[in-house]
Amino acid sequence: MTTTSAPPARSGARVRVQRFGTFLSGMIMPNIAAFIAWGFITAFFIPTGWTPNEQLVQLVDPMILYLLPLLIANTGGRMVYGVRGGVVATIGTMGVIVGTSIPMFIGAMLMGPLAAWLMKQVDKIWAGKIRAGFEMLVDNFSAGILGFLLALGGFFGIAPVVTVLSDALGAGARFLTETGLLPLASLVIEPGKVLFLNNAINQGVLTPLGIQQAAQDGKSILFLLEANPGPGLGLLLAFALFGVGIARASAPGAIIIHFLGGIHEIYFPYVLMKPILIVAMIAGGATGITTNLIFGSGLRAPASPGSIFAVLLQTASDSYVGVVLSVVLSATVSFLVASLILRASRKKDLAALEAGTDKFGSSVAQNAENKGGESKVASLLGTDTATAVRIDTIVFACDAGMGSSAMGATILRKKFADAGLADVTVTNVSIANLDETADLVITHQDLTARATEAAPQAQHISVENFMSSPKYDEVVALVKSQRV
């Protein structure tokens, strides 16, 4: 099997953290709709909501205490061991939930995968040894007994431990908030986002703690630490005005995708091409957090994706001024800092551009070189070999499977349509959900190593930017050549 565009070597620790974040995201993201629904219910029906209702407000507690953790546990169980794993995960998590009085999201994220893994190991014990006709009996009772034991273990073991852990994390968050140190979180969050560690930070820490805060106070500032679109907006505005080359030309489109669509990954390449710009992101992020601290503002539920629309829809009724100001001020600060950096290096960047070494457009420059016959993509995709595997199914993959990869898939579908190629399937999924059906997998270069592990049978292409990679044209040309 041919593999295209071999990814550069990545830190093992970084890949493991990314993988862990992806797994957490895989449990949370499919259930974001339930979080949004819960957010709307609280927004409308709690005593301080838009339309208080004594009957419908009774939905709030059961949803956050039972529905949301059980959905997460079931999804985590299914990821490990299919439907059977999901069922046992749900049973075990029920014990964790009943064993405490706080929303048990961290417990669900622990018990869900653990229960499914144990079910998988138990099934292996008598796999192939059951007498014909007794399979259903053994399967049902083994799952039932294991679920029973896990529910007890969750009640007496995991619930107390996770309660202590949640209390400690919550106390840490309160300490940072009350002492005004929370803006320092930007020192970790902003670099983490650019390194694609945002899922581990957001889904593993901020969302569970935020949900607990929102259940107690009706809102949480923690939902805004990673989701605030202001810093990215300021960065992209700076590139639109003071950038050079492809970065400047693509920035206006990236603004729409980032600020309105909520796809934050779109601005990561702009930071990576000039790493000092992380200072602008940290300054912008810290400004947004400080503003929300001053105004005591927060969101009712996670804003996912981090679009300004999602942020405003989840904003608590008493927080609109603070949240809007946090977005505006964080964008302003990141814009000013990024502009200074870009202006300071403009001559150097223009000279580099004239010399054909525009970092952001490196793939474009590589494409120009590829026209001379040195394209890795062309050779690895097999345009010069009769043994190339026919490409019928192309899959874009990213961490969540519904953000930047969706945008890339849309662009490539349009290119196929323009080329008159109607028999190629182009979809987008999370890396965790890659399977053997993909002929070609397209990922961001930082994620290709994991995608290759998940779908080793497929050809793989790495891109720097899902929105503007010239490698798409090469893929279209290859597919077209295979159908002549």
TrEMBL record:
Domain PTS EIIC type-2: where? 20-343
Question: What is the uppermost EC class here?
Answer: transferase
Q: Does the keyword Transmembrane apply?
A: yes
Among SUPFAM superfamilies, the record links this protein to:
PTS system IIB component-like
* UniProt keyword terms in alphabetical order: Cell membrane, Membrane, Phosphoprotein, Phosphotransferase system, Sugar transport, Transferase, Transmembrane, Transmembrane helix, Transport
Predominant localisation class: membrane
Q: What is the official name of this protein in its record?
A: PTS system mannitol-specific EIICB component
Species? Microcella alkaliphila
